[in-house]
Amino acid sequence: MATVYLATDLRLERRIALKVMHHHLSDDDRFQSRFIQEARAAARLSDPHVVSVFDQGQDDDIAYLVMEYLPGVTLRDLLNEQTRLSLQRTITVMHAVLSGLASAHRAGFIHRDVKPENVLLAEDGRVKIGDFGLARATSANTATGQQLLGTIAYLAPELVTQGTADARTDIYALGIMLYEMLTGEQPYRGEQPMQIAYQHATEQVPRPSIKNPGVPEQLDELVLWATEREPDERPDDAQVMLDRLREIEDQLGIAPLPARGRPSPATPSDDSDGETKLLPPSIDTTGATTVLAGTRPLDQAAANADNAERLRAATRRRTTRGWWIAVVVVLLAAVAGGTGWWLGSGPGSMIAVPEFAPGTTFPQAADELAARELVAVEETESSLEVSEGEIIAVSPDSGTRMYPGEAVTITTSLGPASVQLDSLRGMTLEQVDAHASDAVISVRDDVAEVFDGGEAGTVVGAQLLPAGSDDGYACLDGCGAHQGDELAVTVSAGSLPDVANVSVEEARERLDEVALGAADETEQWYSDDIAKGLVIGIAENPEGEEWRPGDTVTLIESLGPEPFPVPDVAGMTRDDAKAALEAAGFAVDYAGIWNVVPNGLTTATGTDPASGTEQPLGTTIYIQITATQ
């Protein structure tokens, strides 16, 4: 809507900013009227954080403003250079802008165009907001989407949906600007302005900490409060939001950076004509400026010329006799400015990241960083070497220099990671080693073996031993574990050697081949199948466990069939004696001639072997028979 020139006020010997309305807007009477009216309203604001309006006038049909000249950059320039700001610099800017807007809101004015382009950052550290009251005048003209894009990025939902604005409209724009300073980007993006406007009207601004984890929760909540879609849910005006910001400053222990004092007013020089474009003197000042009457009537043009000539003459004299003073002043200013920059926002203000001792926890590290005006952000990961809760790493590294308010990432240990082991039953030892290695679990070297009759070399038992503990638990069919634990494995040694029906000496040799020893003494059992002196088998382990290589076993030696006493059949008839012997398990024999003699006429007189002697079952007993008298 206007072109701004750097100009020299010859009467007051100061540099000013001269804002001249574009020619193509001069035909709009309503625009000119509003331009003049709102410029006068802005001039009535007296606040150190508002760009001052010194005068307003009109030359023919072109209106202009005489404003305070503030050497420096805009907040947009600073964001383009640094992407996002530190917490202290962000709070400094917000504190100043809120103070200026609070003054305006108390006076009944709203800005309607709060954005980084309208926040001026002076070289001496002062922060001011400009273009008060001009957004309304701008809205009276049509602009392209590209021209509106910067403003649309900070547009409150009610302006999109209803076209109304009040102090809470400025608050919404402040919330968007605070989000951008904390994250380095605007919350909504789109190729067309309407896409951005639609997002403002339908979506909730996200927390800045999602993009920048170093943002404290208090500033998160301040952004969300200021950018509520419903105006009634926002702060009523800038003073309410400023009061909350001051509370946050106390909670975080962060104070706004002070200004370093105003620079000396610039002195115009003879060659200023090449730098500054001035309009011809205004005939009709519309009452914006009042000039005190002199002691005698003066022609206005002559007075201006006389003042200018005196100023130029004085300037030439000062230049002739004091050029070296200017050099010294410039050098001193450069040194002072450089020192202020170095200590205030340059490398001199940076803080070294401390080195943390082994075993330090996150709360301890956060306290130490807070004492150095740095913000701690915690991340976690599993670790075998570092105990749970202790620091694993720091980013940036210890010794790195950072600006106050920047975030340091502290990675702490969750301890060993949890893992799940599958069933190990039937695996070979190599397969168990591979599976355990994938889970970062070690297999103990002292692998046990048992003679269980299974396939030799396959796993038949497993016990999980937690790191640092000797108390394990069964894991043959799978179990939960932690990385760094140990696995004790038992494998099958196959079957015990077959020692049945061989001599004791040969049985000992067979046992020795599989690393089993044989006790000197043997157990002796009767056996109907194994001949006397041969081995029946291996006795059971008295502890009820399976035999392992290296154990000493006991052989079972056969005594042959078990003997039983021969019944006494003397005095019985032939048939009764035979039945008694057969019932006892013996075979019976007698002289065949007695088969033709009736049983009642026979009497058994004895046996061979004799009655009472012990004989193996099945032994043939010969019955001695005589005829009955």
Describe the protein in words.
The chain is of the alpha+beta class and 629 residues long. It folds into 6 domains: 67 residues, 2-Layer Sandwich (Phosphorylase Kinase, domain 1), CATH 3.30.200.20; 181 residues, Transferase(Phosphotransferase), domain 1 (Orthogonal Bundle); 63 residues, 2-Layer Sandwich (Trypsin Inhibitor V, Chain A), CATH 3.30.10.20; 75 residues, Trypsin Inhibitor V, Chain A, CATH 3.30.10; 55 residues, Trypsin Inhibitor V, Chain A, CATH 3.30.10; 65 residues, Trypsin Inhibitor V, Chain A (2-Layer Sandwich). It is 31% helix and 21% strand. It has 15 helices and 29 strands. Strands 14, 15, 16, 17 and 19 form a 5-stranded mixed beta sheet that branches. A 4-stranded antiparallel beta sheet has the order 1-2-4-3, covered by helices on one side. Strand 6 and strand 7 form a beta hairpin. Helix 5 packs parallel to helix 8. It is rod-shaped and about 180 Å long.
Keywords:
single chain, 629 residues, alpha+beta, Phosphorylase Kinase, domain 1, Transferase(Phosphotransferase), domain 1, Trypsin Inhibitor V, Chain A, 6 domains, five-stranded mixed beta sheet, four-stranded antiparallel beta sheet, 15 helices, 29 strands
Rg to the nearest angstrom? 54 Å
Helix content: 25-40%
The description of the largest β-sheet is:
5 strands, mixed
Shape: rod-shaped
Whole-number average pLDDT?
A: 82
Q: Count the helices. How many?
A: 15
Q: Into which percentage range does the β-strand content fall?
A: 15-25%
